[in-house]
Amino acid sequence: QPQLVESGGGLVQPGGSLKLSCTASRITFESYRLNWYRQGPGKGREIVATISDTGVRRTQLRSVQGRFTISRDDAKNTVYLEMSNLKPEDTAMYYCNLPATGSWGQGTQVTVSS
What we know:
Layout (H helix, E strand, L loop, with lengths): L2 E5 L2 E3 L5 E8 L8 E6 L5 E7 L5 E3 L8 E6 L4 E6 L8 E7 L4 E2 L3 E5 L2
Parallel strand pairs: 2-11
Antiparallel strand pairs: 1-3, 3-8, 4-5, 4-9, 5-6, 7-8, 9-10, 9-11
């Protein structure tokens, strides 16, 4: 079973930026589509962005369009989520997901607060 490990979360002030990483192991990374999800306090898990095996990006969540960018580095088996102009409502646990195998990481917490 593939293993996904997220990192890069933390506490940031409104308007700040963070770059999340998710590194995969035990899988031929470049063959798969990957997703970023998030789950805010008291909310359900929602998909944020997805990137195909060929690098086609799609930001699924309208509230983050223009602020969040998904990317991948297949040589490093890593998918990224660059987040800018962060808002308090972006506070959530962020997860990466490999839908082909149903694999999830443990999540990384992002807190946006002054």
